[in-house]
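Aim 2, interim progress. The first record below pairs a target sequence with its structure tokens.
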Amino acid sequence: MWLFCYNTPMRLDKVLANSGYGTRSEVKDYFRQGRVCLQGAIIRDPGFSVTEEQLQDLTLDGVPVLASEHLYFCLYKPDGYLTAMTDDRLPCVGDLLPTNLKTKKISPVGRLDYHTTGVLLLTNDGELSHRLTSPKWHCEKEYLVTYEGDPLTEKETVLFASGMTLREKDHAPEKLKPAKLELLSDHQCRLTLTEGKTHQVKRMLAQTGRPVIALHRESIGSLRLREDQKPGEMYALSSDDIDELKDLSSDL
């Protein structure tokens, strides 16, 4: 986790607000309600100043505060939402952010189609976002695929594992990286990719004559939805979650 780097002490209300814990007015209420503690002592003055070293002992409702320069969230993207922060016509994932985060310059890392659901990483860490979306990134992404047509067979498992070539009308042949196909039932499979070309899963299945009727991203690396997480809900990543994401792109 990257903490703020201060040359001088900073106000606690500013630390909490900048770290995504609420608006400045909401944060001031936390102090009035006695919810903020430093080294076990309740702090009621929003203007109380702290050093970077003291932040290690700061809690909100008894939970250690992650005072970070950047914010990271795992969103359960629902069906029927654009992977965009704003749109004049259709619902988008930016509409799902609480008010206090709308000014934090948070944006999605990569894209999920309008009807695709599942794990979507949101952050204002531009450097990490750029690295994770680089073509050089080889992190595994798992998709639960529901499709129509004849059941997939070991033939497709071998085809995908060898790195199939997409051959589409009016497009040059496109060689894909090897992908892992797990057969789950007659009309459902799990597909693990290490790249993210536009509509890749749908295009791969379409080339085998099987249209995709539902697509759900289960994971990005080790990042998964929580068991009780509902569509439209998100949680803040832990320092371990963030470190693992950074490790994924550490060789770029």
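The second target in this work package is listed in the same format:
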Amino acid sequence: MGVMPTRVHPILATPRSAPAVKVCCIASRDEVELALLAGATMLGLVSAMPSGPGVIDDATIASLVAHIGDRAVSVLLTSRTEPEAIAAQLHASGARAVQLVDALTSDDHAALARLVPEVLRVQVIHVRGPSDVDDAIALAPAVDALLLDSGNPSAATPTLGGTGRTHDWALSEAIVDGVEIPVLLAGGLHAENIGRAIARVRPWGVDVCSGVRTAGALDAAKLSAFVGAAR
């Protein structure tokens, strides 16, 4: 498995012998059941985004969180950056974790931690160059986990996830080596490259959306192959 972080949120504290698998872009109860059957331990639910796949409305997210229950960690993906707005969305959804796909200031991270102290806070780092390594290491003490993706927040229409593109895994490896919290690897992962990605980066967990889907729908065969290759 990946490097054992020295600071682990209680939600992520269960010992494991292989990287955790987070299946993202969950859109229905059938997809919840497929992902759980395959062995996923985290399920991502995508709220409003400026672009990208998998967006569902807040009412559907709340319904799916209730359906997931304690069988997996429900993760709300949000593009909101105001702590009060994020906290309100979390309370309405009931999700146990939040994936922050856009950047927050250090003050906003502290405020969010005060507002939702029980929620696992996962900050996305869009890995584009060496400066992102420094940014990730500096940010790590303020959050519970990092997720390394391949978006471009500065694009005319920001891409904040679900791109299906890989990034430079050497940079992700440097981030894993430089922080003391769990790191999940995302971005263009699928059954054919996940083994190489894990061997290089040694993440705590991996995250997948488009790599296990066919025509937008979760594909049981692709998902089974992905989880098998990851473990």
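The first helix runs from residue 29 to 38. This observation will shape the mutagenesis plan for the next reporting period.
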